[in-house]
User: Which sequence fits this backbone?
């Protein structure tokens, strides 16, 4: 069975080089939810040499900064689990105090079922801005 992250992404690719890609997951409850996916099939951060670990984290932090600037979430969650997909990837999840899982993990049971979560849908213009910011921030981060 081929790993899902080893295949071309089914998600919108916002940025990619020969090391990793940033995809937009288009989650209706979590606008601007991105995933940074290593292109090589490697399972753990410590399987990468130190300079590649640093490159991965610079990319993750650049994506976080871009999301914060574009949609101003109340919080950002960063997660690298890989239990179901043992291929190195990082989730960059914008959170709002009125999202349906706050303050818990977005993978858990909803905590705000009785509330109508506010719609923080990402407009086409915001998607383009996010893509531009991600490109700019990653390129800046990888220069240093």
Assistant:
């Amino acid at each position: 069975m081929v790993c899902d992250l080893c295949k071309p992404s089914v998600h919108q690719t916002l940025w990619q080089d020969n090391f990793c890609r940033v995809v937009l997951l288009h989650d209706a409850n979590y606008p601007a939810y991105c995933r940074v996916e290593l292109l090589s099939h490697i399972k753990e951060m410590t399987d990468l040499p130190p300079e590649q670990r640093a490159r991965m984290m610079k990319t993750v932090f650049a994506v976080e900064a871009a999301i914060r600037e574009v949609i101003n979430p109340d919080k950002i969650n960063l997660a690298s689990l890989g239990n179901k997909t043992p291929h190195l990837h990082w989730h960059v999840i914008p959170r709002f105090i009125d999202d349906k899982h706050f303050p818990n993990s977005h993978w858990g049971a909803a905590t705000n079922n009785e509330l109508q979560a506010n719609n923080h849908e990402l407009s086409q213009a915001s998607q383009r801005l996010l893509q531009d910011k991600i490109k700019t921030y990653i390129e800046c981060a990888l220069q240093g």
User: Anything to note?
Assistant: The longest strand covers residues 89-95. The two ends are 38 Å apart (CA to CA). The beta strands are 12-16, 20-24, 34-38, 75-79, 89-95. The chain has a mean pLDDT of 91.
